[in-house]
TrEMBL record:
This is Myb/SANT-like DNA-binding domain-containing protein. PANTHER family: HEAT SHOCK 70 KDA PROTEIN 14, MYB_SANT-LIKE DNA-BINDING DOMAIN-CONTAINING PROTEIN. Signal peptide: none annotated. Pfam families: Myb_DNA-bind_4. InterPro entries: Myb_DNA-bind_4. Residues 41-112 form the Myb/SANT-like DNA-binding domain.
């Protein structure tokens, strides 16, 4: 069984912050603390697979080329909820950004540059 792009994306997740970054983080005020944990629990393989399937739809791909993408992320969140997953648009935005970043990082590393 070959390892395709879908398998690569499914194995990627948000990378933990390094100790140096954690130590230098800015202290969050009490008001910000209430909203700072909006990314939720870790993503399951099924959630990632469904997210990628929705993300790969042509209408979603075309819509994400715009600068203002909140309505697209809301649409993806509704599709995820229809599939039985409880993720909001900010969690989806964060995961898509992390997957994109990890993909391009892996692509650069593997290109030999």
């Amino acid at each position: 069984m070959d390892s395709g792009p879908m398998d690569l994306l499914l194995t990627m997740s948000c990378f933990p912050m390094s100790q140096k970054v954690k130590a230098s983080s800015v202290v969050v005020s009490e008001q910000e603390t209430d909203t700072s944990n909006t990314h939720g629990p870790n993503w399951t393989r099924e959630e990632l697979q469904d997210l990628i399937e929705i993300w790969l739809e042509q209408s979603i791909m075309a819509s994400l080329e715009n600068r203002r993408n909140k309505p697209v992320y809301v649409t993806i969140a509704k599709s995820m909820q229809a599939r039985g997953h409880n993720r909001n648009w900010t969690q989806i935005q964060c995961k898509i950004k992390a997957l994109r970043s990890a993909f391009y990082h892996a692509k650069d590393v593997n290109s030999g540059s």
